[in-house]
């Protein structure tokens, strides 16, 4: 296997491996690369829905997404799609998947199924690099803070998606979510310190109201997005991306009006997060 960084601080492209039938040793190397770089990209993969699910099982379990449409025959596969007539896309803002769960998902495996002629890239930002770049003052300020995360404002009836043309395609409007996590976590496998708040699902710091939390939350979210801790993926047929939701944020570009894009996602189970 050959590893080529996508950008100085985020993302790696891995070649010379077939995800559908990689060995256990290759799987271990892939895991390590994803934990370290935040996201790994694989090109020219033959990866059927059955391969996708079998791969997810090898990671140690999958979380079913309660909101996205499902792929019909396979409950584990969520469909992330935008029709030519729609304006809104899924995941079109910086976020990390499932931070609103008590035990947030470790990662996601996204497979390109139908791509627009141009556009529809995905970006990632590395939250270890983001934490490292914070000032010492800011690091001291957030060291022992915890934050509350929820998805209710995004998916509920009358919520952010319901106000768009994506609303009718989503499920789970009546679900209630909520979880408290440290603002600075240690990566469960590498031990690296990571900034663990995000613009989509983090609402407030514990012991503070939303209004009281917003100035620091905004400062952290702005600081997390320097150009040098990001990478960008231009999808091609056969591309698979696997990312670590603790190490990275991601953002799906919505710049392909009038065209269809369909991706299949499996969400990999994670573990409780600690400071
Ligand atoms: C997501 O999982 O947030 C969607 C990413 C993408 O469609 O590129």
Please write out the topology.
Layout: E1 2-5, E2 12-15, H1 24-37, E3 39-42, H2 49-58, E4 62-63, E5 78-82, E6 107-114, E7 122-126, H3 127-132, H4 136-142, E8 146-149, H5 152-155, E9 179-182, E10 184-186, E11 193-195, E12 202-205, H6 210-223, E13 230-233, E14 240-244, E15 248-252, E16 261-268
Parallel strand pairs: 2-3
Antiparallel strand pairs: 1-2, 3-14, 4-16, 5-16, 6-14, 6-16, 7-13, 7-15, 8-9, 8-12, 10-11
The structure holds succinic acid.
Succinic acid is lined by residues 80, 90-91, 97, 108, 110, 122, 250, 252, 263, 265.
Care to describe what's here?
With 275 residues, this protein is of the alpha+beta class. It has a single domain (2-268), classed as Double-stranded beta-helix (4-Layer Sandwich). 20% of the residues lie in helices and 26% in strands. The protein is built from six helices and 16 strands. The strands form four sheets. Strands 1, 2, 3, 4, 5, 6, 14 and 16 form an eight-stranded mixed beta sheet that branches. The chain has a three-stranded antiparallel beta sheet with strand order 13-7-15. The site of succinic acid has 11 residues, from strand 6, strand 15 and strand 16.
């Amino acid at each position: 296997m050959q590893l080529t960084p996508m950008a100085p601080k985020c993302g790696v492209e891995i070649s010379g491996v077939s995800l559908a039938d990689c060995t256990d040793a290759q799987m271990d190397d892939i895991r390590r690369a994803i934990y370290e770089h935040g996201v790994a990209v694989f090109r020219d993969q033959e990866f059927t829905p059955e391969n996708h699910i079998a791969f997810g099982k090898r990671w140690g379990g999958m979380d079913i997404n309660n909101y996205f449409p499902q792929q019909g025959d396979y409950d584990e596969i969520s469909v992330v799609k935008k029709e030519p007539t729609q304006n809104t896309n899924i995941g079109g803002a910086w976020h990390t998947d499932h931070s609103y769960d008590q035990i947030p998902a470790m990662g996601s495996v996204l497979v390109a199924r139908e791509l627009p002629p141009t556009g529809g890239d995905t970006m990632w930002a590395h939250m270890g690099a983001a934490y490292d770049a914070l000032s010492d003052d800011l690091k001291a300020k957030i060291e022992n803070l915890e934050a509350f995360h929820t998805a209710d404002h995004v998916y509920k009836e009358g919520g952010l998606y319901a106000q768009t043309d994506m609303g009718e395609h989503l499920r789970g409007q009546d679900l209630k979510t909520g979880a408290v996590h440290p603002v600075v976590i240690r990566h469960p496998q590498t031990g690296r310190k990571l900034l663990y708040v995000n613009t989509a699902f983090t609402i407030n710091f514990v012991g503070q109201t939303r209004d009281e939390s917003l100035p620091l939350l905004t400062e952290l979210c702005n600081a997390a997005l320097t150009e040098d801790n990001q990478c960008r993926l231009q999808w091609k047929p056969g591309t698979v991306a696997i990312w670590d939701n603790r190490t990275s944020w991601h953002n799906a570009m919505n710049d392909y009006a009038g065209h269809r894009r369909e991706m299949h996602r499996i969400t990999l189970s994670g573990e409780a997060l600690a400071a």
